[in-house]
Amino acid sequence: MIKLRALVTLIIILIPIQLVAKLNTTQQNYLAALDALSAGKVNQFNQLSKSLSNYILTPYLEYEHIRYGKYKDTQAVKTFLERYPNQSISHRLQHEWLLSLPGKGEWDTFLANYDENLKSSTLHCYYLRARYRSGEKDKALARTADAWITSGSAPKACTPLFKIWLKSAYFKPEFAYERLQLALKKGHTSLASYSANFLNGDQRKAANMMIWAHKSPSIVSSTKRFPSANPYMKDAVLHGLKRRVRRRPDLALSYWNKHRDRFEFSTEEIAELERKIYLGLARQFDQNASNLLASLPSEYNSREVLEWQIRVSLRARDWSSVLKWVEALEKTEEMDPQWYYWKHQAYLAQSIEVPLQDMQQLNKLAKTRTYYGFLTAELLGAPLSLTNSPLPVTLGKHTEIGGLPEIDRAQEFLNIGHTKTAKREWQYVVNTKADPLDLMSLAKFANQWGWHNHAIRAVIAADHWHDLSIRFPTPYKQTFVTAANQVNLDTSWLFAIARQESAFAEGVRSGAGARGLMQLMPATARQTAKKIGLKPSNNSLYDPAYNIKLGSNYLSSMYRRFSENRALATAAYNAGPHRVKKWIKSSPALSIDVWIETIPYDETRRYVKNVLA
After folding, report:
1. Please, what sign has the CA dihedral across residues 311, 316, 321, 322?
2. Active site (annotated) includes residue 501
3. Which of the residues 106, 307, 425, 501 is marked catalytic?
4. pLDDT in tens, 168-224
5. At the N or C end, where does the chain have fewer CB atoms within 10 A?
């Protein structure tokens, strides 16, 4: 008993003082039990576990004990899975247990307990290997292609099976060709090169050119390098052209004119490629873009094509064309209500009387809590709509969701400072629920626990957009207020930037490397820190106060750089000041609403609208 008390004391020392003050004896014993097991003191762990038999987190003690034993006790695993069916902790254990079996040579046990619902590519490969070993060789090899044809690298667990399959009659060169194309679509050139090694003749030559065209799209300007006698070269040309469209759609069009009659392209391939090229030209506001888009087959007059026709017309201040393309979009029944704003502007610019039906649509738009709703309300002199509709979650529903073991455990994990595990429990429930009311209730729990990014995602999944307390929370309010005052910016603007950047998740890191609440890139953060006399620190970017201070100063610098224009500064915060400077240069004397709608980048355009709204 003395040793146990000493262990509990040690655990308490390691926990933040603020949390220790809140821990009861049961919680302290739970943490002590985990620490005892981690230290290999199994007897102490068992003693503490016995005293926690009715504790909400007891399943985790059982789980950790099974893990400690390296999943060797099969009966203990099965008992656990039966005791806690369809729960996050049981799914986690089942996955880990199955992963451990092949390494111990327990293939029969694996095969008897495998569950395809676990959706693990590693487990799937183990399953096929288990079937192969059990004598079902043909059935295993017949299903191997699906595991091999992926856009990324396959798990190491698949390698032994792949070696057999690649030498078998079940492997076809077409599989390698398909995988090469999938890999290039994801930008995985090394995997594409690996796939090309399994090809021969015309396929291999075309594959090599496809990889080259991926890396250097300008190579498609040559017709000699893509001989039409090789039918597979068509795919290399198409891939290279699509790559060229991304930065130089004008060159892509030039290359396309060289190759179009050299290969037997299908009607669909021609229309789809030309749609990409013409849209690329529209994004650059090429003078021929509108006519080219109009030349597409009618079935390719998609919502995206018609919207870009409107933007090109807006940039050219061609109001009759704006009206024409809005009306064309309206006929597709896919039109976003925002375009009624531009339809009205087209009427005004041409001194055309607004039809009653369009006026009704405009009044309806003015009552929405959106960027264009606010613009329209201002245009009509109507009050702004700040519709607030609290989540329609009954006490009964909230109690029902709160009674789920995962939510119960999530609350307790929060109480003892295990936030990561708490979020895992909550997310498991979200992943298993489709009913909007369930998702709304989960959003309320997330909001209550300060997980604002999780709450926002949950209400969006539930398609409920009007609970302002959840959609527009104000965490770290005093820190934002102080930072805003120091740089003389509106606090609401800083909140809007942080919400759009990270949904207030202070520990988030983007794929590009941006970090923290206001998603600062390390280089930008270092420059800003030096300017204001702060010590640069990448790790500190996850600290809300540090991140907000740097983010607010960087936004302030963009605000000053772009003549205190909030829209331009917001665009610069997202896309970078050099791009915004380029966009301004190419579009002088545009009204700010037209400028925002004609931002070439979809992401930045949405970003600016969301922040300003």
Report:
1. positive
2. yes
3. 501
4. 999 999 999 999 999 999 999 999 999 999 999 999 999 999 999 999 999 999 999
5. N
